[in-house]
Amino acid sequence: MRCDLLAVGTELLLGQIVDTNSAWIATQLAAMGIDTMEQRTVGDNEERIVTALTEMLARADAVIVGGGLGPTQDDLTREALARLAGVPLRRRPELEAHIREVFAARGREMAVSNLRQADLPEGAAAIPNPFGTAPGIRLELGSGAGSLAGKVVYAVPGVPDEMRPMVTRHVLPDLVARSGTPAVIRSRSLRTWGVAESALAELIADRVEAQTNPTIAFLARGIEGIIVRITAKARDEREAGALLDAEEAVLRARLGDLCFGRDDETMESVVLDRLAARGWTLAVAESVTGGLVTARLTSVAGASRVLRGGVVAYATEVKRAVLGVRAERVVSGPAAVEMAAGVRRALGADVGIAITGVAGPELQEGRPVGTVWFGLALPGRPEESVTVRLPGDRERVRQFGAISLLNLLRLRLDADGGNPGP
Amino acid sequence: MRCDLLAVGTELLLGQIVDTNSAWIATQLAAMGIDTMEQRTVGDNEERIVTALTEMLARADAVIVGGGLGPTQDDLTREALARLAGVPLRRRPELEAHIREVFAARGREMAVSNLRQADLPEGAAAIPNPFGTAPGIRLELGSGAGSLAGKVVYAVPGVPDEMRPMVTRHVLPDLVARSGTPAVIRSRSLRTWGVAESALAELIADRVEAQTNPTIAFLARGIEGIIVRITAKARDEREAGALLDAEEAVLRARLGDLCFGRDDETMESVVLDRLAARGWTLAVAESVTGGLVTARLTSVAGASRVLRGGVVAYATEVKRAVLGVRAERVVSGPAAVEMAAGVRRALGADVGIAITGVAGPELQEGRPVGTVWFGLALPGRPEESVTVRLPGDRERVRQFGAISLLNLLRLRLDADGGNPGP
């Protein structure tokens, strides 16, 4: 099964927005074992949409078209599909009623042009849109399309929030059904951090090689780590869940503490959950990262139950006056420990963590760019410092330093309370 | 002149990385008045690269190919170009010497496969790569390409840092020269903040309508504002500079303080420069933004000459104990002023700024999500608070709040020292 992707939108051709939809859909298809060989973008032009689809469907079994389903005269995907299929557009009364209801519910006037969204090529099926007025379209080409008969086109909106549920709930299952495999497909993501993709692959090489169902894929997420994605095909939800549970158990045993969470969990949400479970509050002292650690933590709704706050001690005098740092060198292990203990005391928290280092472009205190010290002050453990040398430029050292500190705290929280080692 | 774009890379088809290059190149082409009608992505497959180029060049005058120029067996753009042109690949001694020099300078062993990067299709020109070993390729198709003779292909690396200077310095001038317009093209970006694109367009509508040379384009940058880009074509550098200077003066007079900077300047770099010019230091108190303001400021190399640090006062008790906030309600004007004055005092800075507010998802102190108060404490001005109601979800309120505070400080620094408005 080969399914290629066509994005429609003049704003994409002008570079006014970056097409993130194609990459997202591509990862979904890859996880299902469906091939994608071509992605294409054309403007809001009926002729060019038809030409692109004709060329693409000559090679692919299916094409997903994103965009061009809105209510304005610029939105021409419906017209292009009808022309491709050699059939007329027909207004669907049930879709018209839905659009009128949505506007009435929002208490807004409806321009007549909105009803264009109720027009579908004859023989097409509507894909429900829970978050907007424009339905998606599933169109299997018939004899009117000549040599393309039997191929299928899915049209989805360009708005990511409307597109994603349509692809997940309707397009992917339909593609999977057409490829002759069972109907229920479920995925689970294990989130890992602190290991290269090649080393990760080696750890679970036999599972990856033996994979038939569930399948296992790696998705690199830059400084956020690598996702190990497990995808199971089954006859029903329960069977899929059982397959995922079994594979997750095997993989977690191998991955150990490299795996920090699952699905929507982030490093910061996991750290906050772990602290909340112990009833501990947190304070953060930052130098080199300049607020990135607290910014990550406060991105989680409900962070206030754990996080008391932080001090960005950028100037040396602030480290001394506010955090009580006495160490002569402020990029050092002793300084990092004093920062952690100092912010814990100053903000009245149970746990204090700290980071100091050199982001560049220049050396500091003779230490090379990328030198970073972490400080930890946790109840029932000796205060400690850990140092690493991070690669990359200023922004990468800062970003990497921030998540590294959170990961270090996670490891300590998971370890035996009295065990000082990593 | 129509120039379409082809991205090559299996990792793009798998969705492992998002193609940001195409959007970037597209904005550059649009600024030059060169049309783009199609963008396409294919994998690392010689056959499919040739097919794509053949189809694309049947419609376009030129195609820019990104990616597939590396040293591994996966990198097949060179082979595809040679096949398309119906010519052999030839190793260029001067390119081979350059590659050997780069490795020698880095003190690294060179695998023989790296010399593949010295192979160019016969008749092609190398595009210098100041940041890597792989040269770009400029190939005008000859009689060996049949009906495509006279069309031109540019191949550039997929790595953005290597691709961008090649496009700016070589590909764009070459395209412009081919389209028969003068040889020197220069752009300047005026960065604006705090105004909608429609309102901005209205302010300078007559300049936009009258544009022939320089031309004026708008580039929306989300919460970072809107860029007004001026592009001049001229016979030489001096003439281009004079055209840009004249248009910039007219636009700046219209835009007033909506324009915060030029080209690579950011809101945070501008604020730091303004403070440095007065010899003032800065301290930041944050609640709702949780460190985003200081994280932005510390992203600028050299921020330490101005920024002393910040306090993330997330818990109410931290606002009271560390910053000395006495106001009963902590999401209020009086609290914002006390935070600004408190952090200025605690960190020993000349200027204190603060933000408190409600990011959601829940109300706080009965205030709706998006309610934000800014506090300012500057030398020679009364302390003041400003409130706004920001739209959007939690992350948007936080991001928008952070840049809004920096913009407010910029406006105050630019205003008369004794003037408390606007």
Describe this structure in words.
The structure is a homodimer. Chain A is of the alpha/beta class and about 425 residues long. Chain A has three domains: about 5-180, Molybdenum Cofactor Biosythetic Enzyme, Chain A (3-Layer(aba) Sandwich), CATH 3.40.980; about 185-260, Alpha-Beta Plaits, CATH 3.30.70; about 265-415, CinA-like (Maf protein, Alpha-Beta Complex), CATH 3.90.950.20. Chain A is built from 14 helices and 17 strands. In chain A, the strands form four sheets. A six-stranded mixed β-sheet of chain A has the order 2-1-3-8-7-6, with helices on both faces. In chain A, strand 16 (about 370-375) and strand 17 form a beta hairpin. The longest helix of chain A is centred in the C-terminal third of the chain and has 21 residues, at about 395-415. Chain A is elongated. The interface between A and B is large, with 69 and 69 residues. Strand 2 of chain A pairs antiparallel with strand 2 (about 40) of chain B.
What is the CATH class designation of the largest domain in chain A? Answer: Alpha Beta
CATH-assigned homologous superfamily of the largest domain in chain A: MoaB/Mog-like domain
- Indicate how many domains the architecture of chain A comprises: 3
- Spans of chain A of at least 5 consecutive residues whose pLDDT stays below 50 are 417-422
Tell me about the largest β-sheet of chain A: 6 strands, mixed
Radius of gyration based on Cα positions of chain A: 27 Å
Q: Any idea of the CATH topology of the largest domain in chain A?
A: Molybdenum Cofactor Biosythetic Enzyme, Chain A
Strand content of chain A: 15-25%
